[in-house]
User: Fold this.
Amino acid sequence: MPNSDWPTDERPRERLLNHGAPTLSDSELLAIFLRTGTAGVPVMAMARALIDEFGSLRGLMTASRRQFCHVKGLGSAKYAQVQAAMEMARRVMDEPLRQGNPLRSPEDTRRFLTSRLGTYPHEVFAGLFLDNRHRIIHYRELFRGTIDGAAVYPREVVRQALEDNAAAVIFAHNHPSGVAEPSQADISLTRRLKEALGLVDIRVLDHMVVGHGEVISLAERGLM
Assistant:
């Protein structure tokens, strides 16, 4: 049945306007985003099929361009829409910190880092370079690849921290597997970076590991 022929209460867009976005299922939200189906496939059926194909809404939204565009009914235009929507969401979440508000709690940091690192399909090592009031000077993605495979060079991190005139740093990286538990390599790397930055009086406040829906702080675990 075409979307226009559904009872008004069953149309995702009308349900969102009447009852709010949180009342909609993942497939209904996706149907609103997609707007139309393909020949012979109504948009709701297409939305459900796509979530099944990618395993979840998150799986769809974080798929690579190749994976995304390979699916019938999708393409570069819709991939660009997804990426734009994701980036807008990140910027909304980041705005209070980008405006110079200090990081007042570990939860502030967790929200910021989840918005930046939580959707990457590959591992990214990043630094939050802070002033002496713990306001963000720069957020920088420093290295890509697995932490024990791709080298993270303390010398380069120190150089960047000095260039940014940072007083403190919070490190973070994501685990694309979704499991946020820090590895021994994560712990060893943190201690090497802390030692290197300590030589130039820059404090390492934390190293956070971002998984799917979970962020683990090495400082809170006493692993630094």
Remarks:
- The chain has a mean pLDDT of 84.
